[in-house]
Structures are given as C-alpha cells and as structure tokens.
Write a structure and sequence with these properties.
Blueprint: E1 2-4, H1 33-42, E2 47-51, E3 59-61, E4 74-77, E5 90-93, E6 99-103, E7 111-113, E8 115-118, E9 122-126, E10 132-134, E11 137-138, E12 153-159, E13 167-169, E14 177-178, E15 181-187, E16 195-197, E17 200-201, E18 215-219, E19 226-227, E20 237-238
Parallel strand pairs: 1-2, 2-4, 3-5, 4-7, 5-8, 6-9, 7-10, 8-11, 9-12, 10-13, 11-14, 12-15, 13-16, 14-17, 15-18, 16-19, 17-20
Length: 242
C-alpha cells in the first residue's frame, strides 16, 4: 500500500527504492499523489494508493502538469481518507489544460473511488479494460457544487477507442455524480462491453436539482455498451442536461 499524506505536487525522490517519499533527506516520509503514482508505476505488480492527509475537512490536490499515466494496475482509493462517509474529502483540481487521471492499456483492473475531480480538460481518461470508476464527483467540488473559475471540464470520463468492459458506477452506493462537464461520459469508437450504472448525470448529489452537463452521455460509433443493465439499482438518473 502507498499512502498519500501531503497535498503538494512534488515527484518521488528515488524511484529505485520502491518507497514513496518526495524528500529522502527529511526524517518523515512525505508522499504526494504524483509521487505515489510514480512509485506504483516503478514497482512490479498491482498497488493500492490510499490517503491519510492530516486535518479535518476536504483537501485539494492541484497538479501543475499532467500526472503520470498509470500503466499497471492501481487501486486509487480516496474513501480511505479519515472522516470519509458518503462524499469526497480528496479533491483533484486542474487548470483546464490537461487530463486528471489516465489509465493506459497496462492498467487492467484498476479503479478510482471517492474523489472529486474537476477543472481538467478530461477528468478521467481510460485506454484500458476492466477499470472501475466508483463513488466520485466528476465536475463538482467536494460539497457537490459546480467547481471553479475555469471553464467547465470538457469531458468528465472518457472511455477511449477500443477500451472494453469498464464500469462507471455500480449498484448500491457505488454510483458517481457526473455534472458540470461539457460531456459527462464519452464512449469512443469501437469501445465495447462498457457499463454505466447507478450514476447521477447532470444533477446535484441528491438527484433533485439540475447541475447540467451539455451532454450527459455520448456514444460515438460505440457498440454493445450498456447504460443501466436491467438489474435493480443499476439505472442512472440522467437529467438536467442541456
């Protein structure tokens, strides 16, 4: 397990020691999200990235440049942040110019849960398979309001061409709130077997007020994908979008 415990954006100090630490000269191990992803990529095998940032309330991580692409299995779990109940305490916030989190083809079986991801050009980009996106606010701040002074996130979640069997949301409390994006979820050409389940797309977290995406869900020459799969609790609320 790799534990993020600071909000700053430094890289890992030594990628050969399999330890996430941004300053090897400091006695206390300090691990940023950037350094955690670098460490996970450098280590062989799957990794879990958890969070334990000191202080009550939500914490914002604002990367200055695009974070490293994840090309091995990474379980990125912000529900581990102390105090988490049902809404994010870890916010990943950009400046409109790049992608927030990127799962490349080698990241088969990865996941991200419990984060607020906003103000990027693309919030989450998937060019992999069997990735799970659960319990996140995509395009909103941790309080569930439209995020920021940068123009809205262009694409909340992009499932790229050829990607297969990824799941956005789930049954029970696994759904995401995907709002305040130009496109909430985009499934690209040739992407198959992807499922969008149990999400609120274009609303507030309660599903009672509009917080519009321009387009809720966009499929572009994508076949054999499911928006809800007929199982109780798998249906999405797609409402309030332009």
């Amino acid at each position: 397990e790799i534990e993020v415990n600071i909000t700053t954006d430094q890289p890992d100090a030594d990628l050969e020691d399999d330890v996430c630490d941004v300053d090897a000269n400091e006695p206390d191990q300090q691990c940023s999200l950037r350094a955690a992803i670098e460490t996970a990529n450098a280590k062989a095998g799957p990794d879990e990235i958890s969070f334990n940032i000191p202080g009550a309330g939500a914490h914002t991580i604002s990367p200055a440049t695009e974070l490293p692409v994840m090309f091995e299995k990474v379980l990125l779990d912000a529900t581990t942040q102390p105090g988490y109940v049902d809404s994010p305490l870890i916010e990943l916030s950009g400046n409109g110019g790049f992608t927030g989190l990127t799962f490349d083809r080698g990241a088969f079986g990865s996941s991200v849960s419990g984060m607020a991801i906003n103000r990027f050009f693309v919030g989450i980009s998937i060019t992999s398979s069997s990735v799970k996106i659960e319990r996140n606010y995509i395009g909103l701040d941790p309080g569930g309001s439209p995020a920021g002074d940068v123009s809205v996130q262009q694409v909340g979640i992009a499932i790229r061409a050829g990607s297969a069997d990824n799941t956005v949301g789930g049954i029970g409390n696994l759904g995401n709130v995907i709002s305040n994006n130009t496109v909430g979820v985009e499934i690209g050409s040739g992407a198959t077997g992807n499922k969008i389940l149990g999400n609120k797309i274009g609303t507030n977290p309660a599903g009672t007020l509009a917080t519009a995406n321009e387009t809720g869900v966009l499929l572009t020459f994508a076949n054999e994908n499911e928006i809800g799969d007929g199982v109780a609790g798998s249906g999405n609320i797609i409402s309030g979008n332009a």
